Sequence to fold (306 residues):
Amino acid sequence: MSEIYDLAILGAGPAGICAAIYASRGKLNTLWLEEKFVQGGQIVNTYEVDNYPGLPGISGMELGETMAAHAEKLGLAPERAAVVSIEDRGSVKIIRTKKKEYRARAVIFAMGAEHRTLGIPGETELSGMGVSYCATCDGAFFQDGTVAVVGGGNVAAEDAVFLSRICRKVYVVHRRDELRAEKILQESLFACKNVEMIWDTVPVSIEGKEQTEALKVRNVKTGEEKSLSVDGVFIAVGIVPNTSLVKGIVKLDEGGYIDAGEDGATDTPGFFAAGDIRTKKLRQIVTAVSDGANAVASVQRYLMEL
Ligand code: NAP
Fold:
């Protein structure tokens, strides 16, 4: 029989990394799994993070690496493995990857979220051929080109500002007439001379044969359709939680996020949630790391009572 870990942490974004730091300091025998090569979760796709206290203007990649290095200094680094199933056996939880089966007394779900897709014609077909979900990863391919950013949140605003420095022209296509993004990001966006806002407009399809050539859009107020000639389309229409593995194990809210409060406790004893994956009002790096700490404190209480 394999050993039984005190805790399994699934995910190595800010919530998972912070949970690992607290678990390490709490001397919990911890299993930590992450399926991606790079640690840091969604922040590695962020050009600049300017709201994490003490590190103004740090790149998302550097922040992720710095956080992971902190955990490693305390003795914990994630194993690279994709979890394929989780089973609740009461006081023992089973975590299966393709190659192994692990046992743990408690589990923190910190698998975060990933980008939402639009589901319009051309999106899948031209993905990687002009359609992208990561401006910092792919923006450089559009030097002096024309691109469209779809969305009105923080990511769309940040992406558009970033792309405006590389591209000749950037359209921002948003379905309403005001942005959801923070005011400070809106100010930066509206100050970009080569950014054109296309309000009250939704994307209809992405056109092109081997490469993206146009984004067809429709004005939701007038019904008018038009085609924007673009070399690239950056889709930033929000996130969806990575909760497919935990369906039927813990309660999810109507948005598909794990129903857990600030202490991370789910409705199933021994399972905890931290970071973007759980129900919360504000999804930020600071709230994710705070979740990681809170979830470990809850795990420690749970283990004492087990
Ligand atoms: P978001 O805040 O949920 O914004 C998504 C945007 O896409 C909204 O403007 C939404 O329109 C639009 N949208 C959603 N579905 C759409 C569809 N089917 N068609 C067209 N437009 C659609 O998501 P996000 O910007 O990706 O950010 C994700 C999370 O990370 C947020 O919680 C955000 O606060 C956080 N974040 C924070 C920072 C920061 O602190 N600097 C940076 C990046 C991300 P409506 O506005 O009409 O709903």
In short: The longest strand covers residues 101-109. The helical segments are 14-25, 60-73, 135-138, 154-164, 183-190, 285-305. Residues 143 and 167 are 5 Å apart (CA to CA). Residues 51, 118, 150-156, 158, 175-176, 180, 202, 236-239, 283-284 surround NAP (CB under 6 Å).
